[in-house]
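Q: For a teaching session next week I want to show students how multiple molecules come together into a single three-dimensional assembly. I've collected the sequence lines for a complex. Could you give me the predicted C-alpha cells for the whole thing so I can convert them for display?
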Amino acid sequence: MIQLTNVSKIYPNGSRALVDISLKIDNGEFVFLVGPSGAGKSTLIRLLYREELPTRGQVTMNGRSMIRLRDREVPQLRRTVGVIFQDFRLLPNKTAFENVAFALEVIGVGRREVKNRTKKALELVGLANKENCFPHQLSGGEQQRVSVARAIVNNPALLVADEPTGNLDPETAWGIMELLYNINRRGTTIVMATHAREIVDQMQKRVIAIEDGKVARDQKQGAYGYGT
Amino acid sequence: MAMGLNSVGYIFREVGNSIRRNAWLSLASVLTVTISMVILGASIFFLLNASNLAADFESELEIAVFAKDTLDSQEIKALGEKIKDLSGVDTIEFVPKEQALKDLTKSMKSTSIVEDIGDTNPFPDKYTVHVVDPQQVQNVADRITKLTGVDNVVYGKDVVEPLLKFTEWLRWAGTIIVGLFAVASLVLISLNIKMNVFSRRKEIEIMKLVGASNAFIRWPFILEGLFLGLIGGLLAVLVVGLGYDWLARYIQDTLTFMPVVHETELIGKVLGSLVLVGMGIGALGSTISLRRFLKV
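A: Of course. Below is the structure for the complete assembly, covering every listed component.
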C-alpha cells in the first residue's frame, strides 16, 4: 500500500507542484492520475520511485518511509518499482533484448536467468520475434512495449507510468493499455498519469484528478471528467 | 558496495561493448590521452635536459688557488688540507707546477717555449677547487683568499653571476612549461571524459531507474577510463620514446658540446609514469565527471 500524508512539493524555483496532498493506494489497484498539464501529476509520479523527495509530508510504501532511506537503500527500492515514460527512454545502441536484459543485469542477476526472464517479458508484450531489433527499427508502439517489458521484467510490485500513450496513435495506445490491464490483473499495482480521455472513460478504474497541486476529485470507477 | 560475480562479469562485458559501440568516442579519448601525455612527456624531457644543462654549466665553475712560491712541499700539502676542510668545498685537485708547464707545452704544440725558458718554471703550484653549491663560489673563494700561503685566487668573477642567473632561469622555464602542459592535458582529458559521460547520461539515468547501485554504474566508466588511459599512455610512450631517442642522437651529432640526458633508467621512469598518469587521469576523471549524474 502506498500512502501519502500531507505531502507538499515546492521546487527550488518556488513553484508549488503539490500542496498538502493525502491519499492511499491499495496493493493491486489501477489508478489514473488526470488533470491539466503542470498540475502536479508528474511530480506525484516521481515521488513514487523517489526521483524527487517531498518538501513536507510523508510517503510510505508498505509501511516503510520512502523519505528516510539511506543512499544505498534507494536502488533497492527502485528495484520494486517499474517505470514507463512517454518517450520510452530506451538505449538506442542496445537491441530490444539487451534493453530489457539491462534492467536485470544491473541488479546482478545471473546470465541464464537474465536470458529466461527477458525472453518471458518480451513474449508477454508480444515482441518475442523482434528481440534483436534496435529501437530505431521498431515502431513507436513496439518501442513502448519494450519499455513495458523492461519495467516489469523484475516483477515489480508497483508500475508507474507517466503518459505512456502520449506519443502513440489511438490503436497502438489501446494495445499498451491492454498490456497494462493484464499486468494489473496479475497483481501489480499501476499508477498512470494520462491525458487520454477515451482510455480513462472506458477502463472504469479509480481516477484521481490533480489540480493546482491538490486532489480535486477521487472516484472509484471514475471518468476523465474534463471538457474537450 | 559488495557485488556478485554476475555483476563483475557483466561490467567487463559492458566495458568491451561500450568501447566497441562508441568506437569514435573511444578513439577520441585515446588520442586525447596520447596527445596530452606526449606534450607532458616532451615538456618533462625538456625540463630534465634544461636542469642537466644548468648542472653541466655549473660544474664548469671552479676556483683556481695559486700557492705562494715560497712554500715547501710540506706546507703546500697542509694548505690543501685546510682548503679541503672548509665548508662548501666538494673536491680539490692538486696541479703541481711541473704539470702546468707540461699542459702549456701540450697546448702550444711545441717545445720551443720550454726550451726558451730553460730550466726555470714560472708556474706556481695550484689547487683546483670545486664547490658543493655553485651559489657559494664567491663565498668559498673569499675564505680561501684569507688562508695563509695563498698567493692568488681566480674563479671568473664576472662569469659566475650571469651564469647562475641563466641556469636558474633555465630551471624555472622548464618547471613552468611542465606545469602549464600538465594543466592543459588535465583540462583536455577531463573535457573528453565529460563528453563521454554526457553522451551516456541517458544510460546512467536508466541504470538508476531500474535500481543499479552507484558502484555498479561507476565501475564500467572507471575501467574504461583506465583502459583507454593505458592505450593512450602506451601510444604516447612510443611517440615520446622514439622521438626523444632520435632527437638526442641528432643533438649529440650536431651540437657535440650539448649535454643530453640519456640515462636509460631515468628515461624509463619518465615513460612509465606517463602511462600511469594517463590511466590515473582516465579513472579519476570518470569518477569526478560521474558524480553529478549519480546524485540520488
